[in-house]
Write a structure and sequence with these properties.
Layout: E1 6-11, E2 14-19, H1 24-30, E3 38-42, E4 45-46, E5 62-67
Parallel strand pairs: 1-5
Antiparallel strand pairs: 1-2, 3-4, 3-5
Length: 72
């Protein structure tokens, strides 16, 4: 049985493991977050959502995702 390489990342303060070559877009999809209602920070830098499919996560990355909520 072949074991895939896994990397450790931190998402909103919680550590998780994903396979290597996991894209930021794949992470957002896995977390079931609506792309049009979030802001993404990767290692303290705001990410342009148009680029998320081209950004691949690396071991030790820290991701913060803020979800916008409407209200009055």
């Amino acid at each position: 049985m072949k074991v895939k390489n896994k990397i450790k990342i931190t998402v909103n303060g919680k550590q998780m493991q994903v396979i290597s070559k996991f894209s930021l877009k794949s992470l957002i999809t896995k977390l079931k977050m609506p792309l049009n209602k979030i802001a993404i920070e990767l290692n303290k830098k705001i990410i342009d959502k148009k680029r998320i499919s081209k950004i691949f996560l690396q071991n030790g990355d820290q991701i913060e995702i803020v979800h916008f909520i409407g209200g009055g």
